[in-house]
Structure formats: structure tokens, C-alpha cells
Design goal:
Layout: E1 6-8, H1 14-32, H2 52-76, H3 80-87, E2 95-98, E3 102-105, E4 108-111, E5 120-123, E6 142-145, H4 148-151, H5 161-169, E7 174-175, H6 183-193, E8 201-207, H7 210-213, E9 236-240, E10 245-249, H8 265-272, H9 276-284, H10 291-304, H11 318-347, E11 351-357, H12 360-367, H13 375-383, E12 388-390, H14 391-402, H15 406-413, E13 414-415, E14 417-418, H16 420-437
Parallel strand pairs: 6-7, 6-8, 8-11, 11-12
Antiparallel strand pairs: 1-10, 2-3, 4-5, 9-10, 13-14
Helix pairs in contact: 2-8, 2-10, 5-16, 6-11, 9-10, 9-11, 10-11, 11-13, 12-14
Amino acid sequence: MRKPIVSEIELKGDLMLRFLRLLITIVLPVALGGGGLTGLGQSISLQPQNPPGQQREEKEMEEKLKPRIKEFLGRVIPTRQEVSDWLAEKAFPFSKYDGRLGYVHRDRTIMGEGINGSACTYTYEKSGERRRFSYADRPCRINTYGNSFTSCEQVNDGETWQEILAVHLQEPMRNFGVGGYSVYLTYLRMLQEETKLPAEYIIFNIFDDDHFRNLISWQRITSEKGSKSFHPTTPYVKVNPATREFSEFENPCPTRESVYNLCNLDWVYDRFKDDFVLGIMLARSDKGKERGIKDDLLRQLASKHGLEIQVDYSGDDVNKTADSLYAQAALFASMRIVEKVEVFAETHRKKVLYVLSAGPGNVAKRLKGEPRFDQKFVDFLRDKRLPYVDLMETHLSDYEQFRPTVTDYINRYFVGHYNPKGNFFYAFSIKDRVVSLLEPRPLPYR
């Protein structure tokens, strides 16, 4: 089993926390002879050992699934030429390799994916932030982090919500967003950049799909091959809501040379055969085939990761069951990551505003009155009394003022990501919360 960077148990109460720290730093090193811990000052996870019967069942399942896993992985592994071209920045223009985070954006890219099919120019400074125009010569006290709804894909430099808000507030905002990042990768990026260009205020965007990405160790497991993105490996987390386990894992390919391992099917199989997300994808694939194996796989995933089966297995509900397991684990992971963000912010005396964004699909479902999959996460933010803006609800309020068709409303703001008009919507949806967060107030509000 690969060793995690850190494992956590959620503890409540200062007395319990102090007691555990005392236990870890004094008692356990003596009892264990210095072994079994990830290091002093880090926490540990108490994981029960699987009984022999369960271990045998897991081994039998592994043998049953081996041909299907190899077939699945064989379809997504890259060629050595593809790896070489990506590392040399000759192909897959969306990103470039980064050993710690998996990838970041290239310094400059032009893609024909904007409104009405227009070309979009993406420029990133040596600092890693997207190019700033508005009040760029003034001191910056706001850093923004997140995925493509923070980096603002499908609009030009200068059309981002950060630039729109900077013009209104008359002060700059840094944009450290990276497309495809999870909540966990956003957290890691924040830790990295706050040591270089720290800011007192942080806007932390969480997109609807970011929850699921927390658990993804290799993006090719969930993404189709294409010419835009290489879909590399990234740092990820494993969770067990029942035992409160939360374990962090480094990028599986931490060096440029190690990326070539992805071309070796045997290496890929050994490395990813037990991957939680791979199990979910296998259960969802080939609808209607090998139902017995799929049912056993889902039960095993639920048992192993402390998840609840919430829907019936009968009929075509296999995908719903898989999605339910995936969502439970994903949302639990995001809650734990937000707690880590809050610890960082408190330690370094920073203030964080969370922004919940969503793609056109989930916004449309909300406008139609369908329940949202992330309600537990929204409840978590509210119960913790953390400052946040929920753009899903802001869209609902906006929609109810005009009542166009859902399709017309979505097309008004989205071109996959937000179009320029959508970024105006984003900027002024969070404006009041940003103004109230800043001290002293921005110049227009003094």
C-alpha cells in the first residue's frame, strides 16, 4: 500500500485534540519505536484491518476484474511520443507539466473556443497568475484560486471576472485559477502561492465538479482522449466517511521521467487497479453487462470506503448507485479540505470568501426545481458559518425576475464556461461580499 502524505481523524474539542497530540508526540513514538507515523506534528488515521473473509473476497474480485481493468486502461494510456510532445510543450496546449501539482497552464495559448467561435488568448505571468491589466501597478491584497471558472476559460485576458471586479473596486486581483483543478488541488496551489505572493484576502472558488476531482489520481480515467489536454496524473485524496479517514497522496508521476510510466500497461495496472474512481467508472461502463460483477464491485466499494448504498440495484440503477457512492465520498472530501483551508487561514491571519460555481447543466437543473447533489456541502458551509456566495441560488433569483426558457437563460451567460456577460454576472454577484470582507474598504466604498 502506498504511503499517504498525511492521514487525518476529525476530532472535536480542544481537550481531545491536545490529548491526541500528546499521544502522538510522546507516547506512540516510544511504544512503536519511532515507526508507524508519518512524522511528528502530523496526524494519523486509525484504520481497522480487513477480516480474512473480506480480504479473500477482494482478491477474488480483483481476479474477476483484471481483464476489464486492463482493457479499460489500455484504451487510455498515452504513447511515448505523446508524453514527449506534452513535456516539450509541442502538443496538448491546455497545460504544461508540474511535478508537484501535476500540471499548470502554459505561458501563452490561443484557442478558438470563445463566444461565437472567436479565438481566446490566455496569457500567464512568470508568477503563474493570469495577466492583469486593471490597476496592476497597485499593491494587491486579494488572491483568487479555483478551477477554470476562476482562471476564466473561454474568454480573453481582460474579460475575466477578476478584471471586471478590479475595475469597479479600483484595485487589482490576482488570478491563480487552473482549469480542471479539484478542491484539493486548489488548496495545494493556495499553499504554494501564498508563500510567494501572499495576500490578506482569498477568494476560493469551488465548482460543482471539483468535489469529484478530489478523488481522481489520473485524469484519463474519467476523461476522453483529445488533442487539447494531456489529462495527467495529479495529487488526490482517499476518504472513508464512516471512519472519518482522510488521506492525502502525492502526484503519482512526480518527475518528468516518471510520466513515461503511463505508457506501460503493466505499471499502470499495478498502480491504479485499486483506484476508487476507476472502480466507479467500471461500474458505470457497459450498461447492462455483467450485472453480477458490477453489483459486487459497488458493494465492495461501499464497504471499503465507508459509504452508504442509497438506491436500489434493480433495473438500470447501477449508474445511480455508482454516482451516489461517488458523490458521498467527493463531498466528504471537500468538507475536510475546507477545514484545512480554514486552519491555514487562521494560522496566517487571512480571510477567505468561498464562491460556489456551477456549470450550465447543474444550473439548468436548479432552475427546473430539481434537488442539488451538493446540498450537504452547502449545509456544511452554513452550519460552520463560513462566508460564501452560492452562484446557483443567485442564478435562480436572477432567472425568476425574467422567466425566460431555461435554455435561453443558460445561453445568456454560458458558452460552456461563462461568456464575458457571465463573468460580469459572477463579478457583481460576489461584489457586496468582497466589499464587506475588505478592511479598509475599496476606494469607491470609503
